[in-house]
Amino acid sequence: MNRLKPEDLRSHRWFGKESMRTFNHRSRMAQIGWEPDDYRGKPVIAILNTWSEINPCHTHFKQRVEEIKRGVWQAGGFPLEMPAISLAEPFQKPSPLMYRNLLAMEAEELLRAHPMDGAVLMGGCDKTTPGLIMGATSMGLPFIYMPAGPMLKGNASGKTLGSGTDMFKGWQELRAGDIDQEQWEDLLSGIARSPGHCATMGTASTMTSAAEALGLTLPGAASIPAPDSRHAQMAAHSGKRIVEMVWEDLRPAKILTDDAFDNAVVTVLSLGGSTNALVHLIAMARRAGCSLDLDRFDELARTTPLIANLRPAGKYLMEDFYYAGGLRALLERIRDKLHTDALTVNGKTIGENIAGAAVFDEDVILAREKALYPDGSLAILRGNLCPDGAVIKPAASEPRLHRHKGKAVVFRDYHDLSARIDDPNLDVDADSVLVLKNAGPQGGPGMPEWGQLPIPKKLLQKGVRDMVRISDARMSGTSFGACVLHVAPESFIGGPLALVEDGDMIELDIPARRLNLLVSDAELDNRRRNWRRPEPRYARGYGTIFTQNVTQANEGCDFAVLADRSRVPEPDIF
Hints:
Elements: H1 12-15, H2 20-32, H3 36-39, E1 44-49, H4 61-74, E2 78-83, H5 96-113, E3 118-123, H6 128-139, E4 143-147, E5 154-156, E6 159-161, H7 165-176, H8 181-190, H9 203-214, H10 229-248, H11 258-271, H12 276-287, H13 294-301, H14 318-323, H15 326-333, H16 350-354, E7 379-381, E8 390-392, E9 403-411, H17 414-420, E10 433-436, H18 457-460, E11 468-471, E12 483-484, E13 505-509, E14 514-517, H19 521-530, H20 541-549, H21 560-563
Parallel strand pairs: 1-2, 1-3, 3-4, 9-10, 10-11, 11-12
Antiparallel strand pairs: 5-6, 7-8, 9-13, 13-14
């Protein structure tokens, strides 16, 4: 392997040559307290830290960044921490997805505009993983991803709780009258009790696991619980490894291939991962120049078993998964489904990284013949209601609803849903199909996680716990139910979902991958002529930039101008 020389480093253009500008750079480094021997001729490593005081998933990042720095120093590099926007899933409105592209843009430009040779990306909370990776991929410098890690298992009233999933279940039970306010408050007090992202197989663990399967983390990194001391060790090792990656010139273009994205999709499917992965992985693949699309997800789903017994589809939580052997053990169990020669950030193939990984609890990581779902844990739907696709997780819905026909109960937007869903006079029954409009990339805006439409209170009180629900929104990876999501094109721009009216018959057939509105073409044409596009959500600011540039769900909800892989020139150093 040809190794770079100090004069080959990108940072050499800022610090190594003799000119007025480079003198100024060195004088400003001296102003900070550094001497030329500290950084000149060494890989300068950006540590993009998405810590903030309102991001509970990343509360431990103040300490982890110090451990990454230690690893960089030990390996002979020069670390520089650079804060990046922190996308806090629980708090950020109208949707953190709206700001994923902003983080991607910031990550790319931070690395391009500064004297950086490589980067460690610190993320974990849902949108931070794809946002950071999208930006760093577009920049093209060597980088390694350091996942935040899941929180510890929740506990209240003697019950093990998983953040997200058990909150949704508890809320249903509260509305149904099966638990009281005191029990609800007790659940909230114990459901999230340590640093780290959701301990269920929600979007956070889905995407950090996908990042590991892509080859962007150290082996086993995604499974380690945030408070575990081995997480701190992993952070330091990530700092050491990025320095070597710079000398080796190991760039994302050598790692992020079509085969790597196949590995990520198979990993998501075997874990029962979040439907959000479709939007994010497609966006990430397009940044890398790869060809991933919805049809490839469906193709791989038909042959991939769901063998992680993790909530919401299964029983256990990420802490159990780690002690059972973690992602390496699961991937070793489905080795034949992977492209094992795909390269990873440690310079080895994924096949080498998982070789010999053992399963220590067969009830957490299941044998393939005991899979929760032998195949098809995720399904891509087509039909006149979703010509560009929609997605559903059959594994998270009641089997009786996999083939279903019912009358539509339509809500024009989320405000309408909130106002009427528990109205005793709502014309709805257990066979109805709940439809939410104007919740997509532009309509939400940002495709908020509204897709798990609440079941009407009067039906909850009769024991109904699942219904077919359709929207152009997303839903939390910790959610569950027969929820058809990501309907494309979205209703806000005139997609067929915009034309659905109360009482229309809708047919869902998951085995056949169909979703159809049983209304004549002539009637739909008439409705289309009478449809009027809603007013834009924003008149100025980032909201306007987002809604004018965002692509549809089946295209990854990226900005076309960011997904464009045309070369961006390096900044001039005069």
